[in-house]
Recover the amino acids of this structure.
């Protein structure tokens, strides 16, 4: 009697399928709302139309996703770190040194190098975010802009330098004149002149900026917290280059995702522990207090050991864009100091 | 003559609207939005498609057999459209008044098989030929249960004239419909509907066109306006069979609303314009069901297609023909 069971199966399955289809048809009146990917039931929505009409509407993305790079050129000290760390060499920088400090970034770092050229070729960019992590003044950030399609690939090369050709030529001339002037009275120059001169001469431009940074920070901009932190930073200097480098790398991995980082932190930390502890502790306190509220401070004391330090570095890039506020940035400077100094000796 | 002109214009409008509705139906069933860009809610999309199609080059490959190749779309469309000649429109406009109207309709419509075979064969393309052969095999097979299920209605009504059949169903709203007066006709209607899907080459019986394997089947080699005629014929066939189904089983142009006491709904909703509206509304509802089926059920295999026709539908419709004869004999006389 296969014959009749076939008929009944055919009728039943057809009716069931038709009922299912018409339910979907009527569910199409509902529309999925814009939701964040990390909403609890994001993947459980089964009803209504799912299409997102892209140019007209889009899924919200975090303010600092891994999308288009932006450089706040006024805050850029042209340290060249981003260009060096870039795995695909998409950042092209042409620095022009200046004989003197000609300005300050918004976090108080003195500017000593002009950016004659600061080009980021987004067509080459692999969106790894390493450059934003190493940036000492947090001027290089990834924005939420991801739709920068163009018809000409050259338009993917974003130029951030504001200097005109004549300005560049002028600054170059200025520095050459300065060097020439310095070379002649070499013997005659007193000790006073040497300090500024000698450092700039050396290859790493950073030195100039880095040393001065330490002093001003403690004294001028911020008051209490830093003075306390001051002592801990000194020990940080002692540890050689290795400790500094590690922290930079880790943040990259964890940086894009905010929440998950805290969870991932512990496993990665163990490697970090030995080196970092002294440096990081001071940094942690300010950061935690500002973005996240209650829970973290409680954890603070136990965390001092290892965990906190790891987490903080990744968060920096995110916080940068929101505010170049002096208070948040200051702690970061301290971090930079140790990094910069050790490197120079190596290179030399 | 009036019905002919009316149906010609209505068919052209219907195709444009039906393509849009079909795409929307498909989209909604699949959690999509469908066309949304051209006009509000994409309502002008099929007009844009139509304009694009008309501008396309009329490609004729060197290896095609010219005369049948050019004739095929015309034969298909004229065969299908000739079927509209006998359809009534409302009480006063009966269409061609043939005593054998229904027989004429089934006979002339089955000529479109000839056009499909010509198109597939003349294209000189193996996939087109596959499609044409499948189409012929399918349509010839399904003509039998289709004809038998229609015959059930003919036995009970005692006439082949579609206008007379509509008058017979003119009663108190939907209580007068054949399918209500003679509940035994429900199964013939299902058979009729399934065969109608197969006749118009629609999913789940779209093997002749199977877009994925045969790239459109017998009309692969056509482009531009000639391809448009195939499209028009397909939708024309859908509409023809749906109007026929409405006339045979659902009271034709009679109003579905019954008189309830002093509430003369039936009388209120009868008249030329109302009648025309009711006929087309019933047909459109059936067309929607066809679309609903299309986006629900997967395509049958060739052997399943044939066994459905020959092993299930044909014996069942013969059996029902027998029962309908008894129904007529015992219940009506």
């Amino acid at each position: 009697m296969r014959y009749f069971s076939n008929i009944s199966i055919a009728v039943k399955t057809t009716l069931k399928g038709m009922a299912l289809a018409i339910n979907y048809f009527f569910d199409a009146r509902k529309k999925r709302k814009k939701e964040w990917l990390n909403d609890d039931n994001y993947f459980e929505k089964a009803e209504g139309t799912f299409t997102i009409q892209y140019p007209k509407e889009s899924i919200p993305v975090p303010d600092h996703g891994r999308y288009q790079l932006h450089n706040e050129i006024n805050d850029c000290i042209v340290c060249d770190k981003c260009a060096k760390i870039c795995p695909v060499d998409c950042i092209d920088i042409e620095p022009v040194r200046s004989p003197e400090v000609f300005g300050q970034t918004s976090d108080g770092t003195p500017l000593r190098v002009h950016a004659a050229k600061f080009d980021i070729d987004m067509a080459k960019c692999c969106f790894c975010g390493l450059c934003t992590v190493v940036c000492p003044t947090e001027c290089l950030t990834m924005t939420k802009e991801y739709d920068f399609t163009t018809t000409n690939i050259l338009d993917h090369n974003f130029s951030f330098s504001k200097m005109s050709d004549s300005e560049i030529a002028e600054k170059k001339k200025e520095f050459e004149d300065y060097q020439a002037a310095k070379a002649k009275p070499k013997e005659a120059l007193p000790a006073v002149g040497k300090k500024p001169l000698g450092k700039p001469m050396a290859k790493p431009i950073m030195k100039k900026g880095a040393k001065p940074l330490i002093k001003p920070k403690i004294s001028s901009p911020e008051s209490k917290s830093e003075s306390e932190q001051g002592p801990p930073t000194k020990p940080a200097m002692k540890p050689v280059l290795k400790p500094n480098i590690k922290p930079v790398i880790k943040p990259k991995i964890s940086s894009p995702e905010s929440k998950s980082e805290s969870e991932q932190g512990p496993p990665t930390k163990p490697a970090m522990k030995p080196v970092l502890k002294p440096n990081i502790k001071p940094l942690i306190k300010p950061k935690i207090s500002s973005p996240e509220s209650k829970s973290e401070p409680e954890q603070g004391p136990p965390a001092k050991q290892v965990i906190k330090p790891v987490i903080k570095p990744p968060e920096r890039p995110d916080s940068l864009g929101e505010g170049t506020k002096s208070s948040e940035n200051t702690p970061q400077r301290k971090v930079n100091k140790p990094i910069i100094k050790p490197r120079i000796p190596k290179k030399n | 003559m009036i019905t002919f002109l009316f149906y010609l214009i209505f068919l052209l409008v219907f195709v444009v609207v039906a393509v849009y509705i079909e795409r929307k139906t498909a989209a909604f069933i699949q959690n999509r939005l469908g066309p949304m860009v051209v006009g509000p809610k994409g309502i002008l999309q099929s007009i844009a498609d139509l304009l694009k199609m008309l501008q396309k080059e009329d490609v004729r490959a060197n290896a095609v057999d010219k005369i049948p190749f050019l004739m095929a779309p015309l034969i298909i469309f004229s065969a299908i459209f000739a079927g509209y000649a006998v359809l009534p429109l409302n009480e006063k406009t009966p269409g061609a008044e043939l005593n054998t109207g229904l027989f004429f309709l089934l006979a002339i419509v089955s000529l479109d098989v000839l056009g499909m075979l010509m198109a597939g064969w003349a294209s000189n393309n193996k996939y087109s030929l596959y499609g044409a052969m499948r189409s012929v095999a399918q349509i010839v097979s399904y003509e039998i249960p289709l004809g038998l299920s229609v015959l059930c209605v003919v036995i009970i009504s005692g006439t082949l004239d579609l206008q007379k059949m509509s008058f017979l169903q003119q009663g108190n709203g939907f209580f007068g419909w054949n399918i209500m007066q003679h509940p035994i006709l429900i199964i013939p209607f299902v058979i009729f509907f399934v065969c109608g899907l197969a006749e118009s080459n629609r999913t789940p019986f779209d093997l002749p066109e199977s877009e994925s394997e045969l790239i459109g089947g017998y009309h692969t080699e056509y482009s531009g306006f000639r391809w448009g005629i195939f499209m028009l014929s397909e939708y024309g066939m859908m509409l023809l069979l749906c109007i026929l189904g409405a006339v045979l089983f659902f009271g034709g142009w009679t109003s579905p609303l019954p008189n309830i006491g002093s509430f003369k709904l039936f009388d209120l909703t009868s008249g030329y314009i109302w009648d025309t509206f009711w006929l087309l509304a019933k047909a459109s509802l059936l067309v929607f069901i066809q679309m609903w089926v299309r986006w629900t059920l997967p395509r049958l295999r060739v052997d399943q297609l044939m066994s459905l026709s020959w092993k299930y539908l044909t014996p069942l419709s013969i059996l029902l023909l027998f029962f309908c004869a008894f129904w007529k004999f015992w219940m009506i006389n």
Remarks:
- Chain B touches chain A through 16 residues (CB under 8 Å).
- The first helix of chain B runs from residue 2 to 29.
